[in-house]
Design brief:
The chain has 296 residues and is mainly alpha-helical. The protein has eleven helices and no strands. α7 packs antiparallel against α10.
Length: 296
């Protein structure tokens, strides 16, 4: 709720002028960044519960599948609720494109992105050996994902040897989905202030030639489709992006379960070996008992 109010305070009523193009884009990416990075808070809780679970698993209290999937089912409703509240507040306060279908697709994308981020955190927490490694690996991976989301770097400008990393990014598909949902069908205006700001960005010689024809120059971004094409965010449609996010959420969660089961089996096999082959303590300081003479 607090982050929803912050988003509303920063981007309230963006409008449809040329400045709103950047404002809408920044607001949508900020919403995604907030939701994805907030999943990192679940890492510490999971690691503490993981250590407790492993001790109980060795004792034979319950199976790995029972713990992991019951925890996933129990945590999901609360995660869905917070994601829905945040997405609804941000949509209303920013003043995004009206329409029930637009609202539903936006909220659905944010919710699935949140679940995918939580699944990724669980996967990392199940694989890493300790909390220090998790504290480094989680944020670094999210930061790299954000670079390949289409906001900081244009997809076509990526070097070929790192361009494949974009397909592993949560930001790529979630950002493309909510950007297309928001910008398709929008028409932007060019008022005098927009044209004046563009004119001031020119050098003096160019400004002298352009100033009297400023009213004939078209808008830099007349519609949403132009902006999407400029950012290369129109290559994958909304519903395929949502489907890919669902697959990522399920895939990360399954990999987390495999890692946790592997870790528990490794600990249990080690415990069984210790029981079969106990190591007897060696008392090196003990003296050999003296032989007593036989009594006749």
């Amino acid at each position: 709720i607090t982050m929803g109010l912050i988003v509303g305070g920063l981007f309230y009523g963006v409008g449809l002028n040329q400045r709103s193009v950047q404002d809408r884009t920044g607001a949508l990416y900020f919403v995604l960044t907030t939701q994805i990075f907030s999943a990192q808070a679940s890492m510490r809780v999971f690691l503490e519960e993981r250590d407790l679970f492993l001790r109980e698993r060795i004792a034979g209290t319950y199976r790995t599948s029972a713990y992991f999937w019951s925890k996933s089912i129990a945590d999901t409703p609360l995660q869905l609720l917070f994601a829905l509240i945040f997405s609804a507040m941000s949509y209303y306060f920013v003043g995004l494109q009206p329409g029930l279908l637009h609202v539903l697709k936006y909220c659905l994308t944010i919710v699935i992105t949140t679940l995918a981020a939580e699944s990724y955190v669980i996967m990392v927490g199940a694989w890493v050996p300790d909390d220090k490694t998790a504290a480094i690996l989680g944020p670094v991976a999210f930061a790299l994902m954000s670079l390949f989301g289409g906001f900081f770097l244009n997809i076509d400008s990526l070097p070929f040897f790192v361009s494949w990393l974009q397909y592993l990014s949560l930001f790529k598909y979630s950002f493309a989905a909510i950007m297309q949902n928001e910008f398709r069908g929008l028409k932007f205006t060019c008022d005098g202030e927009d044209r004046g700001a563009w004119l001031e960005s020119l050098d003096d010689s160019t400004k002298a030639h352009v100033e009297e024809f400023i009213h004939l120059i078209p808008c830099p971004t007349p519609d949403g489709e132009t902006h999407l094409h400029r950012l290369k965010l129109d290559q994958v449609a909304v519903w395929p992006c949502i489907a890919i996010l669902v697959l990522m959420a399920v895939g990360f969660r399954v990999l987390g379960f495999v890692a946790l089961r592997r870790r528990s089996r490794k600990l249990m096999s080690g415990q069984q070996r210790e029981r079969k082959c106990p190591v007897l303590p060696r008392n090196r300081g003990a003296k050999k008992p003296a032989d007593h003479p036989k009594q006749e």
